[in-house]
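Backbone-to-sequence.
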């Protein structure tokens, strides 16, 4: 059926920004559509018996929420293989993008963790059309040395004239007219507290590139971070998550002298949020696998005498505490894992340490739901949940959840 074309009615949204339809009883995952539409699709993957994947070739009857794509080069008017990737919700009105993200999050929590939630996805400060927010942008290099994004679901570099999701400074510096022969990708990074950089990368070169420290500002506070290291991409994200994590902590359960932790701590953004709320005597330890990020965390947190920054994988760190007399009773744990989530081993160790509360910052709704399910099976419950649109015009959504022992 590869390449076959037919019309379908799109009924739902699925994780990953793909819509769901049915054709002769079989589930078809459709890109670039909106639930409620009738679209003409072309099958791109028929390898599985239970479902196919397809692309929208044209829209037969559009949703009231369809808008001209914010990035002309990603529009459904182009042939599917010529559409720029990375803005897969750009054809949907911003308020409805957030509604679809809400549905994916609420559905994952209901289905996987048995939790009903009335969560909504909150817009954050920025352009109303969801453009102009990326302070970090990676483009890829084609065989002829030109730059562009990959097409959706492929490694074909698409030449573009604009990068509308980029912040104005990143967009101004993006060298779309230059050639980068020999490089595989180019990163454009515009930190809020230091000069911007254009960094050509070559995945074949050996070893780590030389470290280079830049400064990010969150309110009055400065954070040192490596130019290639992890930092939230939306210009308003670090402040949004700082406030959200501060609000998510139940103050009655917080003990500044307990063994508080910021796991997957990066350069200490969320440890600083905790310490800023609870004051100079707060004890808090960040745990992060990247040694350079840990060095930056140590300097970013230097004013809090009770802070420590440890380089370790979180699973190994928690494993190392097993059998020791260490207690996390009364502790607050901030958990901000990568997209894959924390997983069973980390959840088991954490629960065994008996902290007072966990504030879980999640960039993947399904991984969050999986971990919430594990915690619920072990006697914990979800007590608060907020979600934020930190990635407008994409399918991504960030959630901040508080979990406490039940009863
Ligand atoms: C989503 S980021 C969060 C960073 C930080 N909380 C922030 O908001 O800036 C996840 C961090 O976890 C780190 N990481 C990934 N896997 C890890 C692991 N198994 N153990 C410890 N850190 C890990 C990454 O290097 C990254 O800094």
């Amino acid at each position: 059926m590869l390449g076959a074309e037919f019309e379908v009615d799109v009924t739902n949204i699925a994780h990953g920004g793909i819509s769901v339809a049915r054709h002769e009883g079989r589930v078809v995952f459709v890109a670039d559509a909106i639930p409620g539409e009738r679209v003409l699709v072309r099958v791109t993957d028929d390898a599985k018996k239970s479902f196919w994947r397809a692309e929208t070739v044209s829209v037969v009857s559009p949703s009231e929420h369809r808008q001209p794509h914010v990035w002309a080069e990603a529009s459904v008017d182009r042939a599917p293989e010529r559409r720029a990737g990375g803005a897969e919700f750009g054809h949907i009105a911003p308020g409805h993008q957030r509604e679809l993200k809400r549905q994916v999050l609420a559905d994952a929590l209901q289905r996987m963790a048995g939790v009903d939630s009335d969560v909504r996805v909150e817009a954050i400060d920025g352009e109303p059309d969801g453009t102009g927010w990326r302070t970090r942008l990676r483009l890829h290099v084609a065989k002829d040395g030109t730059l562009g994004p990959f097409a959706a679901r492929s490694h074909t570099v698409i030449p573009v004239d604009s990068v509308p999701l980029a912040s104005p400074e990143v967009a101004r510096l993006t060298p779309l007219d230059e050639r980068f022969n020999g490089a595989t990708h180019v990163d454009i990074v515009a930190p809020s507290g230091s000069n911007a950089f254009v960094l050509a990368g070559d995945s074949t070169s050996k070893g780590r590139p030389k470290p280079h420290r830049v400064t990010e500002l969150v309110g009055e506070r400065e954070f040192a971070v490596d130019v290639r290291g992890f930092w939230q991409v939306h210009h308003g994200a670090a402040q949004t998550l700082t406030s959200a994590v501060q609000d998510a902590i139940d103050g009655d359960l917080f003990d500044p002298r307990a063994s508080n932790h910021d796991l997957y701590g990066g350069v200490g953004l969320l440890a600083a949020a905790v310490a800023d709320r609870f004051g100079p005597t707060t004890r808090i330890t960040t745990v992060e696998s990247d040694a350079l990020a840990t060095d930056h965390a140590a300097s970013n947190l230097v004013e809090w005498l009770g802070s420590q920054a440890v380089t370790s994988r979180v699973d190994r760190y928690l494993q190392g505490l097993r059998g020791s007399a260490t207690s996390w009773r009364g502790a607050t744990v901030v958990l901000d894992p990568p997209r894959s989530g924390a997983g069973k081993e980390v959840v088991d160790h954490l629960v065994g340490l008996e902290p007072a509360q966990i504030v879980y910052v999640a960039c993947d709704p399904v991984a969050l739901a999986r971990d919430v399910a594990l915690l619920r099976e072990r006697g914990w419950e979800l007590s608060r949940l907020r979600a934020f649109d930190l990635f407008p015009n994409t399918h991504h959504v960030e959630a901040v959840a508080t979990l406490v022992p039940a009863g």
